[in-house]
């Protein structure tokens, strides 16, 4: 059984690899499968598995201690207009009363 994907253009199952690309012999369409898998991996999900996007509003689901400070981000804190970034802390935001901060997506849920 072949593990190669079907052609996204015409649906043909007779695709083959040519270097880093896949080629369809029926419609001559070429595509790079790495970009498709990178899109799936780059999706950021909240604690419930919902996909997050730039500009979403989220709620903190756990008390979060702020490193180097005695402040705490309390459960239920609403964070508006988030921005997604690469890295371990993949949400960049401003929290009222605290300021600019980076959060992990596993500690928030989409509103």
From TrEMBL:
SUPFAM superfamilies per UniProt: Prokaryotic SH3-related domain (SSF82057), Zinc beta-ribbon (SSF57783)
Ranges where the Protein YjdM C-terminal domain occurs: 44-111
Gene3D superfamilies cross-referenced by the UniProt entry: 2.20.25.10, SH3 Domains
InterPro entries, sorted: YjdM (IPR004624), YjdM_C (IPR013988), YjdM_N (IPR013987)
Pfam family, one: YjdM
Domain Protein YjdM N-terminal as annotated: residue spans: 3-32
Protein family according to the UniProt entry: Belongs to the YjdM family.
Protein name: Protein YjdM
Originating gene: phnA
């Amino acid at each position: 059984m072949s593990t190669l994907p079907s052609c996204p253009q015409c649906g043909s199952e007779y695709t083959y690899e040519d270097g880093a690309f896949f080629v369809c012999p029926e419609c001559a369409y070429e595509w790079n499968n790495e970009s498709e898998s990178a899109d799936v991996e780059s999706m950021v999900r909240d604690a419930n598995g919902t996909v997050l996007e730039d500009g979403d509003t989220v709620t903190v689901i756990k008390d979060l201690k702020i490193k180097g400070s005695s402040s705490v981000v309390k459960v239920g804190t609403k964070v508006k207009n988030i921005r997604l970034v690469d890295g371990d802390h993949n949400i960049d935001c401003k929290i009222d009363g605290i300021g600019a901060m980076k959060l992990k997506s596993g500690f928030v849920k989409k509103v």
